[in-house]
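Summary of Year 1 activities. Much of the first year was spent building the evaluation harness for sequence design. The harness presents a backbone, in tokenized form, and records the residue chosen at every position. We chose the following record to illustrate the format because it has been used consistently in internal testing since the harness was completed.
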């Protein structure tokens, strides 16, 4: 067979139509063919412009993944008048799902791409939280959407991961320890990016005692003593006052609840949450 061309019409990038076409072509071993994408067809004007390009062409096959039924009808009529073979890769499946689930499709173009972008934003935020967890690299404060400060056992890490996973927020958390100097750059970033975390003395004492048991230490360590906890809390309170950042008490709160409080603070400070 002489060389032929597959024209892929799409309201997005046309990647799906091209890949399915290549998958089908692989079953025949054709070597002489071209695939041309006609992408981002989001108006009848754009569709008609692309149709003019193929008007009068020979040895072509039309494949499309357009969800707008008005556009599908125009393309179908165009192909019928010129005796072009036209394959709808998307709508038969959409109709089958609609019939099976008894739910109506949104008929919005580019949704899959939006979901794809959402997935990568989530992964990027999770990886960021892991990379900059517990002050591993203070340089992350400039890239972060949010900086969490707090002493040990104030839910810094769980909140960082949760906010990255559920809200796609890039979070770095910095531990506040009297013996460790806080990164000087923390005073250079906008304070609206910073939120302090605190907990009650009693809760911290209980959590730290349990933590010591799980790692095999005996009770009575300085780490869990009331005196040490009070010292750390006083130090952290002083740092947060110097910065002028809001402080959230995580005691008796689930991660989800604390997360919502943090998000509301970020929104009040002008941060746009996209997820």
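For this record, the design step produced the sequence shown next.
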């Amino acid at each position: 067979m002489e060389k032929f061309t597959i024209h892929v019409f799409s309201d997005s990038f046309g990647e799906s139509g091209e890949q399915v076409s290549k998958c089908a072509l692989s079953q025949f071993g054709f070597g002489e063919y071209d695939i041309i994408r006609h992408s981002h067809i989001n108006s009848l004007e754009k569709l008609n412009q692309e149709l003019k390009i193929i008007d009068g062409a020979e040895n072509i096959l039309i494949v499309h993944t357009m969800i707008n039924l008005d556009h599908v009808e125009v393309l179908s009529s165009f192909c019928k008048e010129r005796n072009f073979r036209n394959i709808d890769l998307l709508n038969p499946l959409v109709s089958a799902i609609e019939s099976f689930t008894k739910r109506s499709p949104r008929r919005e173009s580019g949704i899959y791409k939006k979901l794809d972008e959402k997935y990568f934003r989530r992964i990027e935020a999770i990886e960021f939280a892991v990379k900059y967890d517990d002050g591993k690299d203070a340089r992350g404060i400039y890239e972060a959407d949010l900086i969490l400060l707090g002493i040990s056992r104030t839910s810094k890490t769980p909140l960082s991961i949760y906010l990255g996973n559920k809200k796609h927020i890039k979070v770095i958390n910095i531990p506040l320890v009297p013996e460790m100097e806080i990164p000087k750059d923390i005073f250079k970033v906008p304070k609206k990016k910073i939120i302090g975390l605190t907990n009650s003395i009693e809760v911290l004492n209980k959590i730290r005692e349990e933590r010591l048991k799980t790692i095999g230490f005996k009770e009575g360590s300085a780490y869990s003593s009331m005196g040490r906890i009070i010292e750390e809390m006083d130090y952290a309170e002083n740092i947060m006052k110097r910065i002028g950042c809001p402080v959230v008490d995580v005691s008796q709160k689930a991660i989800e609840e604390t997360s919502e409080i943090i998000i509301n603070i970020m929104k009040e400070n002008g941060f746009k949450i996209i997820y």
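The mean pLDDT is 92. Quantitative recovery figures across the full test set are reported in Table 2.
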